[in-house]
Every structure is written in structure tokens, then in C-alpha cells.
Amino acid sequence: MTTISSARELMLQQLQALDEALTRKAESSLESFVEQAWAVVEPGKPFVRSWHVGAICRHLEAVIARQIRMLLILVPPRLGKSTATSICLTPWVWLQHPELRFLFASYATALSLELAVTSRRLIDSPWYQSRWGSRYQLTTDQNIKSSYSNTRSGFRISTSVDGGVAGRGADFLVIDDPHNLERIYSEAERYHVRESFYRGAWHSRINSEETGGRICIMQRAHPDDLAKYLLEIGYEPLILPNEYDPKRSRVTSIGWQDPRRTAGELLCEARISAETTTQLKRVGMLMYAAQYLQEPLPEEGRMFKADRVSIESAVPAGITRWVRFWDVAGTEGGTGARTAGIRMGRDPAGRFVIAGIVKGRWSDQGVQQIIEQTARLDGVETTIREEQEPGSSGLAVIRARARSLAGYDYQGSRVTGDKVTRARPLAAQVEAGNVVIVARTEGESVAAREFLDELRDFPHGLKDQCDAASGAFGVLVASASVPLEIVDPLRATTDAKAYLADHGYALAPPVSLDDLAGIEDLVS
Known about the structure:
eight-stranded mixed beta sheet; Nucleotidyltransferase, domain 5; elongated; Rossmann fold; 16 strands; single chain
């Protein structure tokens, strides 16, 4: 019995010694503090140990130690940046310096308050109180979501870009995500964040330039976002792209350098895998380059100036010719290529009008049904063209589709050349402000915005809608010099045919009734 008691006592002593060692480690290292606090902050979610968390924490520590005065951390979303910065930093700093004062801001009040409340709950947790509760306590007279203080004169105030900071000051100013990504393409919104919020109010809220520090942690979202301005005024960057680029790697002022050595090596594969990376690129390269590579594509480098496309609520009068062009992918579900059909006409003012965007991921049978239903909705006056895949299988599909669309002006369109070459004529019209999208319902408004996002991304990311729009534009322009009663583009003028050839399009031969005999066997 004595032996068992002694063993238990020894075990308790060892556990106590281990706990004390962990406590000391948490006090001296923000990274260790984040790891140990994780179970309190994110109960039920395992902590993913990664070198990038250590990099973030080391640079935050350098700001607190006044080794770095202004720090800009650029890191992809969902990698623990807010946990380290907006939740754990203040409780950790108050272990040694509870007198220090913090001012936090995010793009939205709700987000700022959520982070502040989570940080306060960490301070109130049994894990924290059992180790450091004797060092300070939160006061009861000033303990609300947006503002709480401790018994050693330290405080945390949380606000938003629109919340105002007049009359408030702190030792450390911390911004966590200053931009609402849904409004990042608004020049007025970006101006507001930079001029009204940061320059007009935030920058001057520091108590002492000699002993204070400024921190901004975010993901890039636009070439003209707040990060651009902060870099211009001297913020030191810690850039952590999802994929390593040796040309952008640099040693920071505290001697830290990205440990990766192979171009394209991922930042944290346990959080953003190679498969997820591929999916993100398919969703939109414009978004991926900014938020995940921290390298937003410049406006002037984009092929389509999508902001010059206007959205109108009604179809302009006087359009006498419509073309629906299909770019077909027989893939059902997933994140790969989609089937897209764009309907385009030209109004009397010479503008190209898009009215009717159809897109989705359907099986071959589903594609057939969608094309037939769309044809009925568009009416027989709409010319229908479909990109024809090379070889006999592509011809078989076109011939089968022609039979199902008997009574409509339908043909296959052979495509040559690359997608960029085919898209340039449409891009020129977009840049000139000659392209209009009609959105009569909320659903059509959503489709219009998604279409414009794809144009901004081109030639990266998804291209299906852009390919279909380029095809419709090519057919429409090529037939512009043909009398409207002539519906067979093969009878167009020599100039029109030359236009198609120059931009990668060649119409397939007309389908005869003999060609259709037994076609079901070929495509079944």
C-alpha cells in the first residue's frame, strides 16, 4: 500500500513539474501560449503545429519588445492569424505587463467584438486563472464586449473601420482584416479604409511613438488595398504565401527567413492541401493570387476591364439578332469545367448585350436537356452555336444535337487557336465600354456578378463563361454584314469568314439528313 501511495505521489510530482514547465514556457513564448490555449479557444479542434504560427508569433513578440515598430503580416485565410493576434496576444502580454493598453479594429463591428469576447473568455478560463489569476483581474466596472480593463490599468478596446476611434489611444494598435472582401472592388470603399479610417483617425491613436507599436494582419485583396499604403509608409512585411516563391523571400529585421527552399512548396499542407490549392485556383485565380499568394494581380495587367461592363435592368429595344453560344463540358458536380451558354445581341447603339447566362455542371444527358430547354426559351429567332470538339466524337455530338434541335438555327463551331486569342476582340469591346449585361431578377444579378468575376480572372481560373461569350461575340460580329434574313453563317461574306478564321473560329459543315441516320448508336 505504501509503495502504491509513493508511486502516486511521485506521479503527481512529475505532473506538477511538467505543468510548471509548460507554464514557464507559455509565459516566455507566445507560440507556446497559443498552442496551450488552443483547447480553450477552439475546444474539440486539434492544434495543427506549423512553422508559420511560430513565424507570426516571433514577429508579434518583436513588436511588443519594440524591436519592430510597425508590422504588416500577410497570410492566407483560415491559418490561425486571428487566434494568435486578436485572441491570444493581449492575454499573453498581460502576463508580464498587465499595464499595457491595446486598441483593436476589424472591418466589421461584429467580427471585432467576437474576437474580443473570445480573448476575454480565455482570460476568465480555469486554465488561465489557475496559473496567472493572481497577477491581475478584469475589473467589474469596465467589462463589456467592446471595452474591458484590468486591475493594473491595462485595457483592450475593440472597434471597427466604421466604428470610430476619436478620443481613444493605446500603446499598441492592432488591425485584423481591415477590408470587407465583398466590397473590395469599390474604389470608394478602399479610399474610405485608407483615408478616413487609417490616415484620418487610426495612425495617430498611439500613445507614444517611442514605446508603442502598430500591427496589421490581413490577406491581400486588391492591388490598391490598405497593405499597399502600409508598405509605402514603412511597415515591415512578413509575407507568408501559400506557395513558396524564392524570388520574393527575404530576411526580416529580426533575422527570420522562410524555411522553404523549393518553389511551389506549400505553407501548411495540413490546413491547405495540394488538392485544396488546385480547387481554389479553379474557383478564381484573381482571388487566389491576392488572398493566398499575397500578390494581387494589377488592374492594368488584366485582359478584361470588367468594371467597364454596365448592368442594366431591361433589354434594350431594337435588337434584331441574338446568338447563343455553348461551351460544353459533360462533367456533373465537382469544381472542374462547367457547361456555359451565353446569349448575346447587339443594340442599335452598337453595344453588345448579354441577356441570358446559363451555366452549371451536368452530365451529358443533363446538358442535352438544358440546351433544349434554353432553346425553347430563347425562341427560334436565336442562332445557336456550340463549340465542336475535334475528331469524329465531336462531330457525332454536333450531329446528334442538330437532330434534337430541328427547327432551330443550330451548328457546331470548330475552334482553333488559344483561348486568349479568341477572347481579345471581346476584351477590346469591354474596355471601350460597349458591353452590357441585362439583370432583371436577383438571380440574374448574381449570375452577372459571377460572370464579371470570371472576366477579371481571365485567363486564370474558370474560363467557361468567357469562352462562350467570346464565341457568341465572334459569330455575332462575323454575321453583322449579312442581311438578317440569312441565318446560315456559312453564307456570310468573305470578310466575315476571314474574321472568324483570324480569331480561331471555323463553322462546321451543315448537317444533312443522311448524316443523322443511326446517330443514336454513335453517341449512346
